[in-house]
Write a structure and sequence with these properties.
Structural class: alpha/beta
Helix content: 25-40%
Mean pLDDT: 93
Low-confidence stretches: none
Number of helices: 18
Distance between the termini: 16 Å
Shape: globular
Number of strands: 17
Amino acid sequence: MTSLRRILRRNSSAELQAALPATLHPVLRRVYGARPISGADELALRLDQLLPVSTLDGAESAADLLASAHRTRRRVLVVGDFDADGATSTALMMRQFTALGFEQPDFLVPDRFRFGYGLTPEIVRVAAERKPGLIVTVDNGISSLDGVEEARRHGIDVLVTDHHLPGRELPAAACIVNPNAPGNRFASKSLAGVGVAFYVMAALTHELRKRDALPAGVDTNPARLLDLVALGTVADVVTLDLNNRVLVAQGLQRIRRGRCVAGLRELLEASGRTLAGVTGQDLGFQAGPRLNAAGRLDDMTRGIRCLLADDPTQARALALDLARLNTNRKELEAKMQLEALSLIDARIASLEGHVPAGVCVYDEGWHQGVIGLVASRVKERLHRPVIAFARSEAGWLKGSARSVPGVHVRDVLDAIATRTPGLVDKFGGHAMAAGLTLREASLPFFETEFAHEVERWIDEETLAGHLHTDGELLAGEFNVATAEALREGGPWGSGFPEPMFDGVFGVADTRVVGSRHLKLKLRATSGEVVDAIAFRYLDGADAPEIRANDRVQAAYRTGIDEYTGTRKLQLVTEWVGKL
């Protein structure tokens, strides 16, 4: 559990609530009143609410380039990324190229331990052995200046599809599709890599239809692949603006009807989820991590093959293999997390309680595939940006950064690189997550620069770890109907946060489950008694012992406990503190 000083309640607009349908559950109406929506129409989440493909600059040029490759039967090679966004982007393009009748489309994912991220010159030379006529990057490429030049030297055109923030110079690709490229007029800057891939495939399909070049008797509608778009969008934790909420909601509808790729079905079922009740949280916390485990510990090729498998038996075998890798990942992450927190505790003690505004952690034995997760856990503990480093090769470190709202970590790295040329070798990413490489000898100086730069961005509220909630649940609202309404009211995620509530409770009973978690029976001020669980409560060395008859303050989400055979409400605490 994270330390916390204060709970802040969101303001719910009475005017917006009044404009919403009267048939909405009252709790859901209060929650929507505190979310960035303009009216009831945004709740429909229909496909016709998507931003037009024609407004994504570069998509139509990309479609023309790909249609030319289709006509001349040039071989297309997709170069992906080793996370869930990159895997779903790759699988989506491969499935659509195959449906459209492209000449033996192929894909390649850089081994993160040998080649690192993106279209590097080294991975281009590997790609060239397959003799493609066109390389299409997904979820990478916008910073691959040298890689694109290497492709041109081999006579290979490059189409860059990406969503990461560009640097000062763009690669000399044949075409670039990136909503965050300078001057791109696309209204949603939050598309995930798989969202960009979806738009490009939609533009291509439209172009081939105009040319009367669609194959007969084949379903080529890109909407059939929205399950992959939903998975990649949720797993990449991009902001769920209206456009992304439509993409995710439509993908979830397909999954719930069983109209998803076999690999995703097996990934969900391996985690104990039934398709009919799947939520965005199941994609983000169950299917996504299992898929990501391949890229973190092994090779994302097997994750992509899982998403490309049509045979259920093959898909099941690959999904179970990914589940095994994910178990290994969790064990490794837990070990590294404890080591990181021990390093932080020792540093805090040596600094008499002072923690820098930006924190770096490093251990020479850490696995570079898991450092992003470690950075995320430490960030949750300290409420400030964190970079976790691992050794990549002799004399070099790879870092994975995770940030907090209000601190654009990619821009922080850019400011440091500009101020001290040569300090950071490579970097890239988003507002909330970034990666970089650094000489090992430069780490102490970089730590100081990082802390100083973050100080310019961060405020005391963020450092204090304030937690935002939707207020209290009222008498009569502690029930399964409330939890179901909130579950169906999503998709929830970054920028459209899952509902969280707070309140003061009496403790009726407690017990430890699974050695790390605390199960509680809580009595609300209304007298209602409800089950609650505090996951990983006992992980914190400073967690106070909670006993029957204590009073606690809790911040919690609503859940449904179905493991006992009866469906009942269970509060899932984000934080619980003894009063």
